[in-house]
Amino acid sequence: MRIQLLDNITGKWALQWIITWFICGVIALSAGFWLTTDHTTLDWFYLAVSFIGLICVVSLSFRKNVMGNGFGMGATAGEVVVQATSGAVGLMLAPLFNFFTHVYGIFYWSKHTDPDGDMIPKSASKAVWLITAVFIVIGLVLFPTVNDLLANYGYAVVEDDSSLFLGFISFFWINVIAFVLSITAQAAMILRYSFSWWLWIIVNFVWLIVNLMSGNYIFAIQTMIYQVNSFVGLYEWYRSEQQSA
Questions:
Q1: In whole angstroms, how large is the CA radius of gyration of the chain?
Q2: What is the crossing angle of helices 65-85 and 93-108, to 10°?
Q3: How many CB atoms lie within 10 A of CB 50?
Q4: SS3 call for 193
Q5: If you count DSSP H runs as helices and E runs as strands, how many of each does the chain have, helices first?
Q6: How far apart are CA 91 and CA 94, in angstroms?
Q7: pLDDT tens per residue across span 212-240
Q8: What is the distance, to the nearest Å, from the Cα of residue 207 to the centroid of all Cα atoms in its chain?
């Protein structure tokens, strides 16, 4: 199904859209920074990492290899530093994983480009869908055990404080779902599968809940900005996939 507005955003209006989206993102993140943080050195660094993240995700949605994966390496490296300096060693695992996927992606994407130099997405077979579903299920089953083992060494990825969302949904499991789905979406995206953007849409929704419950309003704002980009990326990748076919 073709949507004229999205055709324009991913076509003749692409540059205007990217600039407008980025400026709106910078304004929103800056507002969150000024209103919700103490403006410490770490807060400033976090804000800078968020700006780099904006460049990364919009470049990935428009299939730009060097900018997408290059800035992705910078953003994830920055997140590792933030988590390490704040003492959340376990939370370094996700950005570390994402960093190395971007390293792989920058070489892998370069081998699958169109005449304009943009990465060519590919569709997923039933086998890929099945493998993805199995990976998610295994991840959800094993994560609590792995998390407990890491917690014994002081490196828990998610702390289980028994808090509830809406009074009945475990906040611990919301975090677990967000973690497992995000690394799945990241892997699928680096492997050039268009359906990865469906996963990112789900992930962003879950992370929004996590960030709001944990009081991380900067990242809650960032998640909403990312969500808009995910819908654009979904349309752009599927459109490009169909054109290449």
A1: 18
A2: 160
A3: 24
A4: strand
A5: 9, 2
A6: 6
A7: 777 777 778 878 889 999 999 999 999 99
A8: 10
